[in-house]
């Protein structure tokens, strides 16, 4: 059975201070504002999203959110993934669908985020979808921080990998696509993720979405075109974002 109505959509922005690759990343400054504020303000532009909340686990991020009027929920610092953090938020607030927007996508366009909101979804089974966009340069294909994805004719993901997939043995004529850090879950999908241990492939690749793939749960891919889906994984990425903001005179 499917639900077909306008859902109450809650966007959750996980903000982890102790990132292994870039400590303090949510508070990195971009044109006078911390990165977490850039993400929050851009998501909050959407009229289709009922509520936007930052899910945090550090008092320094909490202090900045309080100071800047950003709604937040303090979550456990024991979560291994952002999805588990979102599941905790889902236990505390009302919502039909929960969009996860990575806290390191300061240039994300709310119109791109809205494309992941379905017109209907299953009422009694896990539902999860993920945005994806075409990779436009060869170095991005080879970069392990860009998670590549392939899907079948039903638009359900077949596999995610940090390696280039598929391998171009027979042809070089192929468009590679990368995972964009925007996903949507119903409550059943969040509960499944939080209660299911990592499978062997997920452990090797360190890609959360494989938890669904390894257990045969469909994960819908939604293709978007956007030049502004740059995630900040390193200080070098931050410098590039700052350059884009300055060059285009982007304002919060």
Quickly describe the structure.
By secondary structure, the protein is α/β, with parallel strands linked by helices. The chain has nine helices and 13 strands. The radius of gyration is 18 Å and the shape is globular.
Relative strand content: 15-25%
Straight-line distance between termini: 41 Å
Mean pLDDT: 92
Written as H for each helix and E for each strand, in order along the chain, the element string is EEEEHEHEHEHEEHEEEHHHEH
Low-confidence stretches: none
Q: Provide the helix percentage.
A: 25-40%
Give the biggest sheet: 7 strands, mixed
Number of strands: 13
Q: Please give the order of strands in the largest beta sheet.
A: 6-5-2-7-12-9-13
Count of DSSP H/I helices: 9
The assigned structural class equals alpha/beta
Shape: globular
Integer-rounded radius of gyration: 18 Å
Tell me what the structure shows.
There is one protein chain. The chain is of the alpha/beta class. It has helices at residues 35-43, 59-67, 82-90, 110-114, 138-142, 187-195, 200-205, 210-213, 235-248, and strands spanning 2-3, 9-15, 29-30, 33-34, 51-56, 72-74, 97-101, 121-122, 128-134, 148-151, 157-161, 177-186, 220-223. The strands form four sheets. The chain has a seven-stranded mixed beta sheet with strand order 6-5-2-7-12-9-13, with helices on both faces. A two-stranded antiparallel sheet has the order 1-8. The N and C termini lie far apart (41 Å). The model has no long low-confidence stretch (mean pLDDT 92).
């Amino acid at each position: 059975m499917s639900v077909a109505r306008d859902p109450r959509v809650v966007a959750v922005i996980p903000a982890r201070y102790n990132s292994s690759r870039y400590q303090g990343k949510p508070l990195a400054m971009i044109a006078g504002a911390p990165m977490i504020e850039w993400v929050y303000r851009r998501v909050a532009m959407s009229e289709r999203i009922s509520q936007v909340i930052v899910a945090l686990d550090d008092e320094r991020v909490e202090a900045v959110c309080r100071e800047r009027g950003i709604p937040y929920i303090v979550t456990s610092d024991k979560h291994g993934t952002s999805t588990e953090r979102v599941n905790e938020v889902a236990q505390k607030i009302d919502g039909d669908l929960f969009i996860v927007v990575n806290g390191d996508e300061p240039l994300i366009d709310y119109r791109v985020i809205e494309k992941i909101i379905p017109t209907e979804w299953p009422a009694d089974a896990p539902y999860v979808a993920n945005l994806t966009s075409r990779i436009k340069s060869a170095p991005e294909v080879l970069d392990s921080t860009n998670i590549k994805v392939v899907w079948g004719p039903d638009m359900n993901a077949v596999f995610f990998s940090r390696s280039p997939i598929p391998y171009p043995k027979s042809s070089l004529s192929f468009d590679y696509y990368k995972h964009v850090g925007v996903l949507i879950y119903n409550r059943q999908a969040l509960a499944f993720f939080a209660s299911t241990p990592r499978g062997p492939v997920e452990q090797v690749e360190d890609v959360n979405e494989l938890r669904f793939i390894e257990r045969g749960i469909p994960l819908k891919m939604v293709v978007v075109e956007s030049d502004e889906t740059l995630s900040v994984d390193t200080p070098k990425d931050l410098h590039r974002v700052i350059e884009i903001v300055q060059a285009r005179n982007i304002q919060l």
